[in-house]
Amino acid sequence: MKPKNGLILYLIALCFTALCLFIQVLPINTAEHFQRILALSPNQVIKLTSVFFIFYSILQIPGGIIFDRFGIKIILPAALLLTTIGSTLYMLSTNPYMLVISRILTGVGTSTAYITGIFLAVKEFPRSKSTLFISLVEAASTVSPIVAANFFNNMLIHFGWYAANSGVILFSLILFILAIVFLRRYDAATIHKKDFHQVFSSFISIFKNRAAVLIFCHTFFVWSIMMSFAGFWLKNYMINMHHFSVQRSLNLMVVYWISFSLGGIIIGFLIKELKQCKTYIVLLSLIGFLNFATLSIPALFNYPSLLLIAVLGGIYTASVMINFTIIAHIINHKQVGTAIAINNTFLVLGGMFGQIGFGEILGHTKHSLISVSSNIEFHYYNALLMYPFLSLITLLLSIVILVQLSQIDGTAKANSDLF
Predict the structure, then answer these.
(1) Residue 367 DSSP label
(2) What's the whole-model pTM score?
(3) Model confidence at 414, in pLDDT bands (50, 70, 90)?
């Protein structure tokens, strides 16, 4: 692949990643439409649309294996085509079966979007810049929730259902055409063909790497906080707990995602080697724990405090970008695609765990776990308490990761000529 083609494909991957997360959070703005035309409850719509995550999750690892064996020449156009078809069916859905099929197709199609961006970030650019290019992939995904929460909602209001969704379909189709054009000169020399025994052995060897497993777990818990709070429950929490308006609540969500994006880009500029990764992952995990512990203090329930918490929460979440960079350092370059996919699987499952966990606590607690004043909505407060607990786990994991990386730092440097 020529360098300029690699850069163009990376830019296509950035756009595909943005489209992927946009489609993930799209039900926030489209649920009412399906409640009305399908006569379903909000909970029923969520259950139908969440089938997206099932297929998105289970295809992460197979997608990574395909990347390591075939590169992106086959998988990227196929993924974009499925996403286009699925988005079209989503727009045209007039019964629950069409809705489920559309979400399955988009789940399958977008399952490789994020991996594509990270794969190209670590394969096409120098290792010293991998964190920066990974952070740009995250930045692309950050734009999507903002668009879904504001721009797409305005499109629905002013232009209607079909116009708003047609824009999504057109964007996906354009990416598909561009991918076909710029993948013609794909360099087959970058392919690492393996039989099934080698694939299985490669998979097992990744899980035998203690540092890698710890990274996967850290990613899981960090993203469980991100997607359950900023990715879904934040708006309802602010409205019910603090009686904020919908717009004010959405503004906090936007601040959270922008802080995540900008924090990641700044960290990407700063990090050049594995030693810096070790320092920043512990620092960000400490910030996260202190931040969410502060969030549980009722005396600080005011808008300026919540704004600061949103900023620090976003910066804390940028540690997932460091995790992908560490993987690029400690995993053999022939296994990077698979390792990235495994980490992304843990990321997605963490998001599902966080969203479901918050909802379960919210719906099943009958009294406050901690004594608080009567004007505090204790159901939401109880659910909120899971964030200090989860962030403490990430802090402890980051310390163990620091120890593990210190032990293998020499090995990683010895393998640097592989990249």
Answers:
(1) S
(2) 0.77
(3) very low
